[in-house]
Amino acid sequence: MSQHRSWMFVPADSEKKLGKAMDLGADVIIVDLEDSVAPQNKHQGREMAREWLERTKAQALDPEAPQRWIRVNALDTDDWAADLRAVMPGAPAGIMLPKALGPDSVSQLAGELYQLEQAGSAQKGTTRILPLVSEVPQAALTIGTYAGAALPRLGGLTWGAEDLSAAIGASRKRDANKNWTDAFRMIRAQVLLAAHASGVPAIDTLWDDFSDMEGLETAARNARADGFAGMLAIHPNQVEVINRAFTPSEEEVEEARRIVAAFASQPGVGTLSLDGKMLDQPHLQLARRVLGMDS
């Protein structure tokens, strides 16, 4: 599955939620060994995540099935290496790395993955990494450095606001109109630009009020309009809303086709007129992106 619209968190220690995960309609399932698993349940969570990966391995071969990712614990804990040893035999598509401090954190994780892939079921070099790049102030100040880093496993960039707000003592993350306040808006913009500069998907952070579907839809549509490829989800009801928001409408697809066809009919032309509007190469690039074509 090439789409990265909805990234759904599922706690690793919930047999009920794991049992439903592959049928939620999400593009990516992130089995979480970090925040949603209490310290005393970490070992159990690893075992359940490992069993889930084995149980769903055949289903995951279907190109329409969701990708299976694992969020391990942070590198400054004693848990992350044990997490990897437990789950890598199940060949997850990727590892989400929380509290990444910068490209060096991704490189450290990548080094461990190379060794474990050789001993497990995954082919060498295939396991991707999605770092959460904003959860501590030091990390937030390194976001731009991802753009110039040699990180062949980098599968995208995403960010979170909860841990950072606690770290900086922020009593709010959004203003009265539900817009991000300055620090979080700055981080979001850096994630978007650094991801595009690195040629990987930019994944927007979650909408934490899972009872507010209207707010989620607005946030998801804004994220796509801003250039994000997808969005994190914390509740099954959020998946359909996110998928819909990140899927081009029939009108958008038809307009994109007409723009591509217009340029194809006049090869070598840099600008042209269509329906009384002047179009140039950025319009063509956006149209090709809507159609899933190489830009």
From TrEMBL:
Coiled-coil parts of chain: none
Q: Which InterPro entries match?
A: Aldolase/citrate-lyase_domain, Citrate_lyase_beta/mcl1/mcl2, Pyrv/PenolPyrv_kinase-like_dom, Pyrv_kinase-like_dom_sf
One Pfam match, given by its short name, reads: HpcH_HpaI
Question: Which Gene3D superfamilies did the record assign?
Answer: Phosphoenolpyruvate-binding domains
Which key words are in the record?
Lyase, Magnesium, Metal-binding
Q: Which residues form the HpcH/HpaI aldolase/citrate lyase domain?
A: 5-236
Q: Name one GO molecular function term.
A: lyase activity
Q: Tell me the domain of life.
A: Bacteria
Needs which cofactor? Mg(2+)
Q: Which family does it belong to?
A: Belongs to the HpcH/HpaI aldolase family.
> Could you identify this protein by its name?
Citryl-CoA lyase
